Amino acid sequence: MTAAGYVERAGLAVAAPLAEFVEEEALPGSGVAAEAFWQGFAALHGHFTPINRALLARRDNLQAQIDEWHRANPEAGSGAPEAFLREIGYLVPEPAPFRIGTVGVDPEIAEIAGPQLVVPVLNARFLLNAANARWGSLYDALYGTDALDGQVPPTGPYDATRGARVVAAARHFLEAACPLAEGCWADWQGGAPALADPSQLRGMRGPDLLLASNGLHIELIVDRNHPIGAAHPAGLADVRLESALSTIVDLEDSVAAVDAEDKVAAYRNWLGLMQGTLEASFTKGGRTMTRRLEGDREWTATDGSDLTLKGRALLLVRNVGHLMTTPAVLLPDGSEAFEGLCDAAITCLAAMHDRGRNSATGAIYIVKPKMHGPDECAFANDLFDAVEDMLGLPRHTVKIGVMDEERRTSANLAACIHAVRDRIFFINTGFLDRTGDEIHTSMLAGPVLPKERIKQATWIAAYEARNVQVGLACGFAGRAQIGKGMWAAPDRMQAMLEQKVAHPNSGASTAWVPSPTAATLHAMHYHQVSVAEAQAARMGETPAPLADLLTVPLLGDETLSNETIAHELDTNLQAILGYVVRWVEQGVGCSKVPDLADVGLMEDRATLRIASQHVGNWLLHGLVGEREVDAALARMAAKVDAQNFGDPAYLPMAGREDRSPAYRAARALVMQACEQPSGYTEPLLHAWRQRAKAS
Ligand SMILES: CC(=O)SCCNC(=O)CCNC(=O)[C@H](O)C(C)(C)COP(=O)(O)OP(=O)(O)OC[C@H]1O[C@@H](n2cnc3c(N)ncnc32)[C@H](O)[C@@H]1OP(=O)(O)O
Ligand SMILES: O=CC(=O)O
Ligand SMILES: [Mg+2]
C-alpha cells in the first residue's frame, strides 16, 4: 500500500505534489512521456542507490581510518601523512597528463571571463533579479554602496556631490578600459568617439554607444533629458556594465528544502526560468511591481548590421551533493530516495524546456557540490549518462561543474577532472565548505587556528594555486571555467574592489559574488585584467606541493589568550544562531547576519559548517568546555534576538532555550559536531526544520 500523501509510480512512492508537478508542468512539452519518465526514474534509483550508499560508506571508512591514525599518533602534531593516505586509498595515483574533451559550451563559459552570481532557488524575486543581472548600472552600484569611499549614502534625496564623484569614478573606469586616441573622456561631447583601439567600439543605438574590453561589453546611455545626463557635457546618463555572465541557481547550500513541498517549489522556479515564464509580484517602496525576465538587447554594429546581445545571465543549476535523502520520493523498501538522483533527473527534465533561450548550444549546466574524490565524480558522470539516456538527450548534453570543496577532491583534483573529462565545464574553489572539511577531516589532529588565521595558513594558498595550475594543465583555458569562491561580505564593496581583483589576476576566469550589485562592481576587474594573459603566464607552472595542501592549520604549541578564545567562540556561536534561527523557523537558507561588529556577513550552510566544526574542534581539545559553550550560546541568543527585533515572524530564543527548535538545532550542531558526516550541517538542519514545520 502506498503511504498517505504519496502516489505509486513505477514501484516508487512519489509525494503527490511532486508527481503532479512532474506530470502536469515539467513533462508536457518536453517530448518525454510520463510512463517513460517514471520507468527511467525508478531505474535510476534502483541502479544508483546502492552505489551511492557504498560511496558514503567509503567516506565513513576513510574518516574512521584517519581518526584511528590520530588516536594511535597523538603526539604527531600534524595531519595524517601522505604515505598513510596513499596506503588507505585516500590519495590515488595521478592520471597520465590529459586534456579535457568538453565541447558545446556557451561563450560565457569557454571564452569570456567575468563574474558568476549565485542565487537561492526558492526566492523567485531574487531569482529574476539574478537572471537579469547580466547588465547592471555602474552609477547605481557606485552610488548605492560603500565602493567609492567606504561610506554608504545616507537615505534621502539625491546627493549631487556624491553623484559627481560617481560620474568621475565611472569616467576613470572608461579611461582605463576604453582609452581615447586623444584627450580624455571628460572632453567627450557625444557621438562615436575616436578610441585608441577603434575595435572597442562595437555598436550604436541612437546616441547610445556600445563598447567592449576583454570580451565584456559596456553600454553608455546618453539621455540629455535625464537629470544625470542633463548635467553631463555628452548627456551621459548611465554607464551599464555586462555583469553576471553566468548565474548559479542554487538548490544546495543557500536553500532550506526539506520535503516535497520545498523541492517542488524549487523545481518549479527552475522550470519557470527555463521556460522563460517566471514572474514575481511584490511590494517595494510602497509600490506593487511584477518582475519578469529581461529580453535581449538590440544594437546596430559599426558595420551597420544588427547586433543582439543577451539580456540575461547564462543560467547554471547547482544540484545537491551525494549525501542527503528526501522524503519527496520513497524507494520500494520504504526508505527515502537520494536527493541528488532526484535533482539530476528533474532539473534536467526542466532544462529541456530551454530551447536555446538560455544555452545557445543546448547544454545543461549542473554544478555538483561536495564530492569526495574521483570515484564520486565518476559516479556523477555515470548518473548524468543515465539521465541523458532516460530523457533521450545526446551524450554529454549535461555538463558538470565540479566544486573543489572537499579535501579528498583537492588532493586528487586531476583524477577527479579525469573522471568527468568529457563533460566538465568548471572547477571552482568553494573555500568555505573546503575549510569545514579541512577542520573535520583532521578533527583529532589537534586544535585548529582561529577562523581568520585558517584563511592565511599554508594549506589554503596551496589549494587555490593548485586548482588553477591543475585546471590549466588539463586544458581548461578557452574551454571551461576556473572559478574562485564567494565574496561573503555583501555590504563591503570597497574591500571587494580592493581584494577580488586577485581572482582574475590568479588566472581564474570567474569568481562568485553574492548580489547583482557585487557582480557589476566585480566586472570592472575583468576589464582591468586580461584573464587570457594571466592564464598564459601561469601555463606550465609546477603545482604547489601536495605536502603544503596537506598541512593542517593547527594551533600547535601556541597558547591563545582567554580573550581570544572567548571572542572566537562568541563570533562562531552568534553566526550559527543568527543563521540557524532563520533556516529552521522561517525556511530561509541564506541570510545576511550581522557579526559582532555589526558587519553583515553572508551565511549559508558552508559557513555554518565551518563555525560548527570550529566550535566542535575546540570543545574536543578542551580550549572551551561545554558549560562555557552553553553560557555563550545563551548570551548570543539574546544578541541575535535583539538583531531580529521588529521581524514579526521571529520567535525569540532567549528564555525559550529548551523549547526553541532553532536554539536546540544550533546547540546540537556544535555539541554533536564531531559525529556529523564530513561535518555537514544538513542532517541536523533538516531534522529540526521538519520538526518546526510539523509544529
Ligand atoms: C558557500 C556558498 O555556497 S556561497 C553560495 C550561496 N550563497 C548565495 O547564493 C548568496 C546569495 N545572496 C543572497 O541570498 C543575499 O544577497 C543575501 C542573503 C546575502 C543578502 O540578502 P539581503 O540582505 O536581502 O540583500 P540586500 O538587502 O542587500 O539586497 C536585496 C536586493 O538585492 C537583490 N539581491 C541580493 N542578492 C541577490 C542575489 N544573489 N541574486 C539576485 N538578487 C539579489 C534582491 O533581489 C533585492 O533587490 P529587490 O528588492 O529589488 O528584489
Ligand atoms: O560552495 C561554496 C563554498 O565555498 O563552499
Ligand atoms: Mg560549498
TrEMBL record:
<protein>
    <recommendedName>
        <fullName>Malate synthase G</fullName>
        <ecNumber>2.3.3.9</ecNumber>
    </recommendedName>
</protein>
<dbReference type="InterPro" id="IPR046363">
    <property type="entry name" value="MS_N_TIM-barrel_dom"/>
</dbReference>
<feature type="binding site">
    <location>
        <position position="118"/>
    </location>
    <ligand>
        <name>acetyl-CoA</name>
    </ligand>
</feature>
<feature type="active site" description="Proton donor">
    <location>
        <position position="604"/>
    </location>
</feature>
<dbReference type="Pfam" id="PF20658">
    <property type="entry name" value="MSG_insertion"/>
</dbReference>
<feature type="binding site">
    <location>
        <begin position="125"/>
        <end position="126"/>
    </location>
    <ligand>
        <name>acetyl-CoA</name>
    </ligand>
</feature>
<dbReference type="Pfam" id="PF01274">
    <property type="entry name" value="MS_TIM-barrel"/>
</dbReference>
<comment type="function">
    <text>Involved in the glycolate utilization. Catalyzes the condensation and subsequent hydrolysis of acetyl-coenzyme A (acetyl-CoA) and glyoxylate to form malate and CoA.</text>
</comment>
<keyword id="KW-0808">Transferase</keyword>
<feature type="binding site">
    <location>
        <position position="254"/>
    </location>
    <ligand>
        <name>acetyl-CoA</name>
    </ligand>
</feature>
<feature type="domain" description="Malate synthase N-terminal">
    <location>
        <begin position="19"/>
        <end position="74"/>
    </location>
</feature>
<comment type="similarity">
    <text>Belongs to the malate synthase family. GlcB subfamily.</text>
</comment>
<dbReference type="GO" id="GO:0005829">
    <property type="term" value="C:cytosol"/>
</dbReference>
<dbReference type="GO" id="GO:0006097">
    <property type="term" value="P:glyoxylate cycle"/>
</dbReference>
<dbReference type="GO" id="GO:0000287">
    <property type="term" value="F:magnesium ion binding"/>
</dbReference>
<feature type="binding site">
    <location>
        <position position="318"/>
    </location>
    <ligand>
        <name>glyoxylate</name>
    </ligand>
</feature>
<keyword id="KW-0816">Tricarboxylic acid cycle</keyword>
<keyword id="KW-0460">Magnesium</keyword>
<feature type="active site" description="Proton acceptor">
    <location>
        <position position="318"/>
    </location>
</feature>
<keyword id="KW-0963">Cytoplasm</keyword>
<comment type="pathway">
    <text>Carbohydrate metabolism; glyoxylate cycle; (S)-malate from isocitrate: step 2/2.</text>
</comment>
<dbReference type="GO" id="GO:0006099">
    <property type="term" value="P:tricarboxylic acid cycle"/>
</dbReference>
<feature type="binding site">
    <location>
        <begin position="430"/>
        <end position="433"/>
    </location>
    <ligand>
        <name>glyoxylate</name>
    </ligand>
</feature>
<dbReference type="GO" id="GO:0004474">
    <property type="term" value="F:malate synthase activity"/>
</dbReference>
<comment type="subunit">
    <text>Monomer.</text>
</comment>
<keyword id="KW-0479">Metal-binding</keyword>
<feature type="binding site">
    <location>
        <position position="514"/>
    </location>
    <ligand>
        <name>acetyl-CoA</name>
    </ligand>
</feature>
<keyword id="KW-0012">Acyltransferase</keyword>
<dbReference type="InterPro" id="IPR001465">
    <property type="entry name" value="Malate_synthase_TIM"/>
</dbReference>
<feature type="binding site">
    <location>
        <position position="405"/>
    </location>
    <ligand>
        <name>Mg(2+)</name>
    </ligand>
</feature>
<dbReference type="InterPro" id="IPR048356">
    <property type="entry name" value="MS_N"/>
</dbReference>
<dbReference type="GO" id="GO:0009436">
    <property type="term" value="P:glyoxylate catabolic process"/>
</dbReference>
<dbReference type="InterPro" id="IPR048355">
    <property type="entry name" value="MS_C"/>
</dbReference>
<feature type="domain" description="Malate synthase TIM barrel">
    <location>
        <begin position="315"/>
        <end position="541"/>
    </location>
</feature>
<keyword id="KW-0558">Oxidation</keyword>
<dbReference type="Pfam" id="PF20656">
    <property type="entry name" value="MS_N"/>
</dbReference>
<dbReference type="InterPro" id="IPR006253">
    <property type="entry name" value="Malate_synthG"/>
</dbReference>
<feature type="binding site">
    <location>
        <position position="433"/>
    </location>
    <ligand>
        <name>Mg(2+)</name>
    </ligand>
</feature>
<dbReference type="InterPro" id="IPR044856">
    <property type="entry name" value="Malate_synth_C_sf"/>
</dbReference>
<dbReference type="InterPro" id="IPR011076">
    <property type="entry name" value="Malate_synth_sf"/>
</dbReference>
<keyword id="KW-0329">Glyoxylate bypass</keyword>
<dbReference type="InterPro" id="IPR048357">
    <property type="entry name" value="MSG_insertion"/>
</dbReference>
